[in-house]
Each structure stands twice: as structure tokens, then as C-alpha cells.
Amino acid sequence: MKVSSFTTVNYVKLSLTSTIREAIAAFLENRADLGCITKDKKLAGIIHKNAIYRALLHNLSLDDQIKPLINESVITIHKDQSLIAARDIMIKGKVSHAVVLDHNQEVYGIMSKSDLVNSHMTVLQDTLNRMKSLIENLQDAVISVDSNLRITTFNQTALNLLQLNGKHLLEAPIDRFLPPFRRWLIETLKTGEIQDAKRIRYDNITVIASFIPIKEIDRVTGAMAVLRDVTSYENIANELVTTKQLKKILDSALELAYDGVAVTDKHGHITMVNQGFKELFQLDDHDEIIGQSIIKIAPQIPSGPRLEFEKKMEGELIPIHGQNCIVAQMPIYEDGQRIGAIIKIIFQQLEAWKDIFLHMDKLESEISYYRGELYRISKDTSPFDHVITHNPQMEKFKQDAVIAAKSLSNVIITGESGTGKELFAEGIHNESGRKGAFIKVNCGAIPEELLESEFFGYADGAFTGAKKGGKPGKFELADNGTLFLDEIGDMPLSLQVKLLRVLQEQEFERIGATKPTKVNVRIISATNKDLAELINRGKFREDLYYRIHVIHLHIPPLRERLDDIPVLCTHFINKINRKTSKNINGISPQVIHSFQRYHWPGNIRQLENVLERAFHFSQTNWIEKSHLPKEMNLLEAPTSLPLPEKSESTMKINRKHSMHQTEKQVILQALKACQGNRSKTAELLGISRTTLYQKIKKYQITEELEVKFSSS
Predict the structure, then answer these.
(1) Distances from the Cα of 97 to the Cαs of 23, 33, 46, in angstroms?
(2) Cβ distance 587 to 622 under 8 Å?
(3) Where a domain ends, among 187, 209, 232?
(4) Do 98 and 146 reside in the same domain of the chain?
(5) Strand, coil or helix: 105
(6) In angstroms, what CA-CA distances link 688 with 387, 678, 683?
(7) Domain enclosing residue 315, as ranges
(8) Could you say which of 554, 574, 601 is where a domain stops?
(9) Do residues 289 and 189 share a domain?
(10) Whole-prediction pTM value?
(11) Considering only CA atoms, which of 213, 191, 210 is closest in space to residue 200?
């Protein structure tokens, strides 16, 4: 698409004789930051409103001309240039605005960085819509799942073939509707490789299925099943009793096949081929092919001794005439004797899907880039200004975070689940000014056997199945940027040793590499665990602890900033109002009082979830206490009694003990309200099941639960 489609044409137009007063009026009228100076319709320069501000600060009169303030060095682009070319020009010129000229070199308009980002996102969205339209109109049935095997996409052909109702299909687990496909989808997600030509029986139909991984920036995020109905061919073949009838049907079936198919006898001589096979091997005369050896006609295909002794070949990647093909080979038996073989070559569809997914990978990468650019453009102030708080502790935390961002030291952020550790980590990176990317790693979510390759990557040919050219790890991706290690307390000791070496020497080696790679990476860690306790238990290295524990930022839990609850409630209500057609004015004082008595084990995340539930259950314009979950009253923190005067150290110990006892009682009451169901209890408290199990173990709640439920 061209620049002209996304250019701002209502721009500030000034002349060389315009005054500062006229310039200010024009800026206010157009709500613009930049104006164009023209002479005889030609561009003479630009003026920025900041130049006007500086002029006024130097006591220039409003009636003085703007001529001394004009910038004659202007980056320009042509209105018929492509968006890619415009982007390159603006990046090279290091400007956020460029003047757009027409064929007469007259000013057509102004393109800002925001215009450029929005234009690219429009183009990308259009391309994605085209991809969806292509999938919907394919003759093959298509069903895709995410990494949790939940259905994300399907086309009408799939609904017709499998006789499914699309209303209940989306987001449903694959086991519920299509259990026979689960095995191959799991294999595809696990290996990241295409699983092709699988014969699967489903209800009364038989399909040939291909399973294709869906990747997002070299990471498998889902899988797609492409199904072709072959039921009719199998039923016909089973019903035929004579060779003549069988041959006639097979001839018709082969010609309808989209891929190349050849049938041989037990000696490897071709007895049947289809049009796809002839097109692939550039053959014309059908009669000259029949009876010829498969070795002569198709020397690229494994044959001869392999055809005689190998029972079955699921599929091999073989180049044929410069084109990658998947070759599957199935022997034909009659009364236990091999009488021939069927060879299937997938080439057209394989390349088409490969191109589609490569293009989708590229689109996802570009979308991620432009989202980041749009985020940076929209943040005119500190990245922590969107943190809603009136609490002195949180204001001090925000100030400390800004100071930490400007330093070069490693930072560790501690706090309970749901307090926003990742949000602050990304804010510190954005405020730091580091040119590299912000890369996130959840140390508790990646399988231990994959951690090393995820962190350090691997070289070309490092192991069987390794991606050609190798793969960069998280450290390499975060070069000149920030690596955020979430849940670092869950990192295995074996990886802690290697991480310490990288932090000390700022270099590492990819798996299978012979040379080290230098990096400049800043580490921000986060945990809700007591690392000092883990050190005492031998589960965390002390030397690594001091490496990452240079600047320590602790986010206070919501129960220590109860004065923020009213303003947070207002913020979340407005946020939900914007997402829905329903409008809630606010919440009642009784709800605020109830919230300020509650323990909030799930912190800010739990508060938002509770408000969202109450929002949908409210039948008026206000959220009342009756709209809250019944468990909120049950789980309100008990009012603490005044304590006698004690020493400061004793009071700290008692406060900590009191907090632990309160948290323990809240968990006990939640478990009792949910009849001991851990999943429902975690959802009620607004915390993960892992966190709930850790707290149950910490407070030794299991025995008390057994007593409560046995006595009830």
C-alpha cells in the first residue's frame, strides 16, 4: 500500500512571514506538533511547537516572525512510495515525522510515526484476513488446536465432514469431539514436525490426515490437522470382487487424487500412476510408463531391496526435481504374500502450507514489533504512571523503580502472587533506555530438560531434529536489552551454575557450539519465594543470589495498601465499562468497607476478578454487597485486638505471626467453603493451584482439614 492512504493531509500551513501568534493559533486549531512552511506551494522548511516554546522563553514577541525558527533540513517522502520505503527513510533519518510531497514537489501532508505504525497494522490485519479466507475455502477439512489441545479454528468443510456443531466446538478440548486425532496432535506439538499421511478411522468415515505445527517466532504454539475423506474409496475397494472392477475404480480414484500416486507389482514394475505423479516427474506418455521399473522412472524414490523387505515407510523428506516432497510407501498383501506396493508423494499441498505458515510467522513478528513501537509512542511520561495508587509505600516503590531503571545493576523484584511483578519489570526495562528487547522467561513453566536450550540456544546440527542453522536462546535474543527471569526460585540447581557463569563473564556457548557468544544483558528477576530460606535448604546457590540481589524492590501486598482500594475499584469499574455495553456508576461504601476487611491473598489480580464477577451479577447501576461472592463475608480478615506494649523486635515477630495466622485461617475457611476442592479454593482466593499447595504445606493445613471434614 502507498503512503498517500495513511497521510495526515490536514496539517499546519504557514508562510515565511507568519508570526509566532499565527503559528500558535494554527497549532491549537489543528492540534498538531509540527507545521510546514511553504513558499509558492513549495516546501521551505518545518517548524515544531517546541521551537515556539523556546522562542517565547527567550522573550520573543508574539508578533515576531517565525522565520528564524524554521528548520530547513527536512526529511521528505513521496506520496506514491510504499510504506516499507517510508519506514526505512524515517528510521534512517531518525525522525518521528516526515513531510509527504506530491508529483509537483508540493506539500501533500505529514506522516507521523503513529500513522506509519497504524498503516502497517492495517496491512497486516488485511493479510491475516486473507489467510483465514484461504483456509475457509479449502476443499480439505481443517481443524487447529492450541498448545493445550483446545480447538481454536475450523472450516465449514470440517463441520460437514465430521458432522459437528460449530457452536460448541470452539475452545473445546480435542478429546471431547475428536479423540482419534489426539495422539498425532500431541506428537506434532512435541516434535514441531509435520506428521503426514495418517490413516484414521472416525465414526463411519476414514480420513487421511496431515498434522502441521503452528509456530510463533520459532516456538510451537499449536497444531493444525488437514483431513481428506477417503471413506468412499475404501468402501468401494472392499465391495469390488473382480480385478476389472477394482482397476476401473482405482483408475478413477487416482486421477482425482491431489498428490502423486503410483502402484507397483512385487517386482517393482509400475502398474498404475495418476496425473499428479506424471506432472511431478515430467512424463507424458501413459503407455510408456506402465510396465517400466520404478527405479528407472523415479530413481529418487527408495525402491528395490527396500521395497521388498521394508514393511512400511511412514514418510521421508526427499527432493525431487528441486522440490521437497514427502514420500509414503505401503506394501500390498494378499493371503500373507506381498503382491506390490502403493507409493504416495505429497508435494503441492506441502509447499502451499509451508509458505502460508512462514508468512504467518513473519506477520506475527512484525505485529509484535509494531505493538512495541505503538506502546513506546503512546507513553509520553514515566512507564509507571499507569500504576494506580495513593499509598505512600507504592509511591516510594515507583520512585525506587525509576532509580533502579537508570542503573546498570541487576534487579530482583519480590512480592506475593498477583501484585504485578512482571508489569514493573517491563516498566523498568522501558525506562532504562536499553536498545535491546525485553525477553521474558518463566523459570517454573519450562520443562527442566528444555531449559538449557531455551536460555542458550543450539548450533546447527547440535542434535537430531535440530533446526537448520541453529536457534538463538533467550540470552542472545535479549542482547543489549533485558532478560526477565520470573519465578527464579524454581530454577534447577544445574542451570543456576551456568546462569552464574554468564552473569560473571557476559558470554556463553550454544549447545553444540565451539565458540562462545558475547552478550550485554541486564537481569531482572522476580519471585514470591524466600530465596534466603531456599539457600539454607540447599535449593538455591548463594553466589547466584548475591549476583541477582544487587537492587531489591519489594512490592507490598494489597492488604498493606488498603487506602488504594477505592481508587483501584474506580479504575477497574471504568475498565470493564469500556469493554462492555453495560454501565456501572460505582460501588457502595459497604462494599469498600468489606474489601478493606478482606485479606486479599490474590492481591490486585483477585480484586479485579471479584469486581468483574460482581459487575456482571449486578442488576442496577451500583455494585452492592449482595453482588459479592458469599465467601467474601466468610473470608473477611478478623478484626485484630489491641496488643500490649512490647519491644520493637517482639512486635515485628508478633505482626508476622499474626499475618501468617490470618492467612492460614483465610485458606482454611476457603477450603471449608469449597468442601475441600483445591481447584475451586484457588479460584476463590484468586491464586494459582501451585501457590495454594505451597501455602497448605507451609502452614501444615492438611491435618486440620482432615479433622474438620471428619467431624462434620
Answers:
(1) 18, 10, 10
(2) yes
(3) 232
(4) no
(5) coil
(6) 23, 10, 7
(7) 240-346
(8) 554
(9) no
(10) 0.41
(11) 210
- Tally of CA atoms within 13 A in the half-sphere of 671 that contains its CB: 22
Q: What are phi and psi of 415, to 5 degrees?
A: 160, 165
Residue 639 DSSP class: P
Looking up residue 684, the CATH number of its domain turns out to be 1.10.10
515 and 567 fall within a common domain: no
Q: What is the pLDDT of residue 660?
A: 63
Can you tell me whether residue 345 is helix, strand or coil? strand
Q: Report the distance separating Cα 376 and Cα 371, nearest Å.
A: 9
Same domain, residue pair 521 and 572: no
Sheet strands side by side (includes 270-273): 270-273, 260-265, 337-346, 323-334, 313-320
**CATH code of the domain covering residue 251:** 3.30.450.20
Q: What is the pLDDT of residues 199-258, one digit of tens each?
A: 888 887 888 889 999 888 788 989 988 888 887 676 665 665 555 666 677 667 666 666
Q: In a 3-state reduction of DSSP, which class is residue 65?
A: strand
Both 521 and 593 in one domain: the answer is: no
What string of DSSP letters covers 490-512?
Answer: GS-HHHHHHHHHHHHHSEE--BT
Are 403 and 531 part of one and the same domain?
yes
Residue 493 bridge partners (DSSP):
none
Let me know if residue 65 belongs to a domain.
Answer: yes
What one-letter code names the amino acid at 44? A
Give the per-residue pLDDT at 412. Answer: 94
What angle is formed at CA 357 by the lines to CA 351 and CA 363, rounded to 5 degrees? Answer: 140
Length of the chain: 712
Give the CATH number, domain containing residue 534: 3.40.50.300
Name the more confident of 323 and 475.
475
Indicate the pLDDT class of residue 615, thresholds 50, 70 and 90. Answer: confident
* 22: CATH: 3.10.580.10
| Residue 123: inside a domain | no
Element (H, E) at 20: helix 20-30
**Alpha helices for 598-701 (secondary structure H):** 603-617, 630-634, 648-673, 678-685, 689-698
CA distance 278 to 697: 68
Torsions phi, psi for 527 (to 5 deg): -160, 150
pLDDT(319) > 70:
yes
Q: Is 445 domain-assigned?
A: yes
Looking at the 3D structure of the chain, how many domains does it have? 6
Summarize pLDDT for 550-562 with one digit per residue, the tens: 999 999 999 888 8
The three three-digit cell numbers of residue 425, written as one number: 519489570
Flag whether 145 is in a domain.
yes
Integer Cα distance of 12 and 67 in angstroms: 15
**Nearest 5°: phi and psi at 409?**
-80, 160
**CA dist., res. 693 & res. 706, Å (int):** 15
Are 393 and 517 within one domain?
yes
Same-domain status, 44 and 99: yes
Percentages helix, strand, coil for the chain (3-state, rounded to 5) are 45, 20, 30
CA distance 262 to 341: 8
More confident residue, 49 or 438: 438
Classify residue 391 by its DSSP letter: -
DSSP H or E run through 125 = helix 113-136
